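Q: Got a minute? One more chain.
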Amino acid sequence: MFKKFTNACVTIVNKFLPDPFLFAVILSFIVVVLGLILTGQGPMDMVTHWGNGFWALLAFSMQMVLILVTGSAMAQAPVFKKILTAIGSTAKSPASAVMITVFVALVACWINWGFGLIIGALLAKEMARQVKGVDYRLLIAAGYSGMVVWHGGLSGSIPLTISSAGGLGATGGALTEAVPTSLTIFSPLNLIITAVILIVMPFVVKAMHPEADKTVVVDPDLLVEPEPKDYVSKTPAEKMENSKIIWAIVTLMGFAYIVFHFTTKGFDLGLNIVNFIFMFVGILLHGTLRRYIDAVIEGAKGASGIILQFPFYAGIMGMMTGLNAEGVSLAGVISNGFVSISTATTFPVFTFLSAGIVNFFVPSGGGQWAVQGPIMMPAGQSLGVPAAKTAMALAWGDAWTNMIQPFWALPALGIAGLGARDIMGYCVITLIVTGVIAVLGFLIL
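A: Always. Here it is, folded:
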């Protein structure tokens, strides 16, 4: 029964989910219509919000391109390939391959979402090389599924934001003191939800694996590695490119800064330092700057989806947060709608669900907090719900619908050489299972 349901989801998604770029365009149209109906704004108002927001994610887009490119370049280093090969060799069957992949991806994403997003995709690709008969689509979906726990992990932007007094501006006055991570990331509520997902998901992906006659194995062309190059150093330019001295100095500078960062800022794994680590570990492992340059050129081939689609999502965010004459945004209407039907018991669940809906159109943890924090935090306070619980309900809702939002899957898909429709059918099952776990957690714990 479970396999039939999974196969049905995969079939429906393959038939009806368009290319991620067209998906973003359709979402744009939907938000325009919703804005006209729910906020009373005119067509030109919505177009203005869209255009004003269109380039708001440029810095973030570049960060995402770099996480794809530097992660891919790092993975092309011979030493890193050996590590992935060693992990991949622990899988002895298609079932164990998907189980190990999702477990590693979940742990890695809990540590840091950027790290986990890339490691999950790279490990999935390595599993496909080593394990015969494993469904490649499910492998990549398993590697991407780790993203469902990121906002409850060490890089969760909402719990980290409210852990300092300087991050309380988006709480609508509901918080006057910082909320320590012991009440959010390391709270029993959060740790139990995370642990249950960590235990359950390997068995879920195992149960999802298709029968042999429906299994889609990887196209061998996707796994072809570039032929090793012979690097010569005849001209002065070639000697500089392959110079071990220049390589060593640059590498030393990079690692000196990494040490300085963690000694002065603690365990701060923001996206910039993750990209910095990926870059300089890659430079170190490749051995020369020329080899690393070529690895980056190869890795950049999968970045087109990010470059094209992220501005459209920024435009969608602009429309979701654009205010009408009364100072009301579409995201605010959705949030207030859930608040109006909540009680002290159901409020965390409705906060979780509303965050999941808003995340579909505002796929950014920081952006979503800026939109929903001023609404949900005071509402939770008025109902007697602890601020930490409201914040974590927002965080989990933000991460939850990443499973059916191609925005975050683009780097993984770029590495895998697949399209969104190839994995989203499986991700629907992850969405359902983890949604049930989260809802029960917020109701019971």
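A: The radius of gyration is 22 Å.
Q: Perfect, thanks.
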